[in-house]
Fold:
Amino acid sequence: MSALLDLLGDTLGPGGIQTGADVEARRRGDGNGPHGVLPDCVLRPRTTEEVASVLATCDRLGQRVVVQGGLTGFAGGARPLAGEVVLSLERMRGVAPPDPASATILAEAGAPLEAVQQAAGSAGLLLGVDIGARGSCTIGGNVATNAGGIRVLRYGMFRDQVAGLEVVLADGSVLSSLSGLRKDNAGYDLKQLFIGSEGTLGVVTRARLRLHPKPAGEVLAFVAASGIAAVLDLLARLRAALGASLSAYEMIGGTLYQAVALEGALRMPLAAGAPLYLIVEVTGAEPARDRGRLEAVLGAAADEGRVGDAVLAESARDIADIWRLREALGRYTLKLAKVQGFDIAIGLDRIAAFMEKTGRAVAAVSPAARVLVFGHLGDGNLHYLVDDDDPAIAKAVYGCVAEAGGSIAAEHGVGLDKKPYLSYSRSAAEINAMRRLKAAFDPKGILNRGRIFDLSGDP
Amino acid sequence: MSALLDLLGDTLGPGGIQTGADVEARRRGDGNGPHGVLPDCVLRPRTTEEVASVLATCDRLGQRVVVQGGLTGFAGGARPLAGEVVLSLERMRGVAPPDPASATILAEAGAPLEAVQQAAGSAGLLLGVDIGARGSCTIGGNVATNAGGIRVLRYGMFRDQVAGLEVVLADGSVLSSLSGLRKDNAGYDLKQLFIGSEGTLGVVTRARLRLHPKPAGEVLAFVAASGIAAVLDLLARLRAALGASLSAYEMIGGTLYQAVALEGALRMPLAAGAPLYLIVEVTGAEPARDRGRLEAVLGAAADEGRVGDAVLAESARDIADIWRLREALGRYTLKLAKVQGFDIAIGLDRIAAFMEKTGRAVAAVSPAARVLVFGHLGDGNLHYLVDDDDPAIAKAVYGCVAEAGGSIAAEHGVGLDKKPYLSYSRSAAEINAMRRLKAAFDPKGILNRGRIFDLSGDP
Structure:
């Protein structure tokens, strides 16, 4: 460690290295809490060249590195392990003005998502991904976890926003594809490797992101539904009527809705008591027409008894309140003492059977446990929470995920916390292929080691 | 070779191996002509398991393999080299009915693109990629080259259509991600590796492809323009007015248009003589409104003198004739005796300067050479052809591409033919990273060896 500090002290300049009492407690963890080791040392480069120097030096010394962005993850990917130094991108927060010719924007990895959203918005453009942690999560973390959120239905995941990346490999070499060409097949598309690989193959330092025209307006409905079958039926009708203008389709389980309502802190759009609730967002070119179409679909579904009460947001305040409720759901579950959270994806054709079967499997382990569900139903992505920390529940839930051919990590990544369950979604051949990639790009295993999968010889 | 045939004879069954006089002359090459070596042996598996057996056996023996699909490429990727056996996917042509719940379709690698398009169409859905070779090119080749074509503007390249892949690695292990989950971040997204890597990292055996709602109608205009600046200005106006409904924006250079007109074989929509021509396609939900908007934009641009004559297709025959003309452009250039073709991409903000500078650079080498240009201008992708085979012209054109930060291989791949120019678009660090990937997945270098880049020790 002292060799490392000697080598990097001059490189990183004033404020570039924090040690001892300067290391803040927040470095110990992520959105799940500060459960990790307090690192001995935090390295805070200001430029890509400094990141390259840091990694080349660490690689030479065999020094393990954990990369930290906004510390908003939910899988422990940024939680330090013993012996690791922290590489923080927090001094690389630059955001360039959007480039109108290519409809892209260039940002440094440490820039908060919200800063990029605002820069895009000020040019009349939109970044397609939005997540609740927008104010503190960073572009580097968004790329590394392939962030999703509420508008994947329309704009895809973070991968779909990435027009180019600059990445530093473990040996300090720099790969750059920031030109933003729409079509480029001159050899392998290397940037794809670093999207969603949770910092295990390289450190993202800059990203060029695609932007979209800002929609003319937002039409938002809040709907009570009788069950999963009705929710899927309504989704199909909305897709047929609204096409790509349907931009979010969020589900809230009745138990969770009731629990949040009981706290009394928020204006609830509808009375509690329904089995499920939905947030339906439409952001097309013609809000008045969109609104008419949405009302027609909801009316027809209500006439057939498939959906219950529904309200349309009538004002900016209504819209803000509904999204505030949506963001309160995750916060509510984080406050529970013994909660286990599952970030899973299931094919839409299997989701009804999955919900029923998993509910029974959880009850068999813990009859009193509440199942709290919310998530991005349009993508088959459920945040499925159980307020009981019995490890048998995790095995039961992931067993049902595996049986349904689903994913144990839809949008929060694998990190340290989901690693024991990777084989529920991935074959031995796939995990072996991941290890081959790790060995090819980080042969000494210094980068975010032990995240996603173990290396041979690790405990 | 005889050891290989002994080992695989039983595995592949009747018709599974062609040797000697049974090897057809067409195996020698691709869309550029049969310029390669006639292979001694063609292996024709019927199943993924047979592909796995073939590769495991070849890997053990160190037998080099070139993969062949529809033989419609333009970069020599499928052209056999001495000592290679051919692995053809032509007996794996299955296409499943589309799955409406996930809006995807599952196809075997040897299925022609057109067969998948037709299966999607019969279910009221659309595959987003269309290219002229649709009748004979295959899904495996489309994935391996990340095919583009005329509708990238709206639907993206082939990568964007791929929901999942089944791939056999050089050692015969099989990676499969065919479940078609919309969100899945359980470890690395391995399928991305095989899209656009031209069969050098694995052999695609099946693909699950995303489908889109079929547009309600097609509005097509053919427009004469005064130059590149006018073309870019019109593109910006159309995007603002039509958004995602603008689905194709194809450019034809005046010299090429005149040459095709002089052949007299086709109905030309407008008189020759303009510097540039455009095909503008709009495929939205409301064709009548789309048509009105398109006419309004074209009318305004004409009033300002930015575009010249314009015609809108009035019938299915008009539409077919315009696309027939579009597809005749490539065929015309292939007939020229000494033509050199460049498949390049340039950022839209640099394309005007690039065209002028490259024209001068070509003229400096060969004052009489004609420059024939067409392509997907909306993506910055130009098919830039010169009817003179002086190698100095390639160096001049690629030098201008490099200076503009462009791509030497936009949508046709690198193969054998563009390989000498890869460094015009890719840094040494990037090419080194590609070699690391190749070594990780094909350590003996048996798969499509020498395509994209050379391995160490190769001539």
Notes: DSSP finds 14 helices and 17 strands in chain A. The mean pLDDT of chain A is 95.
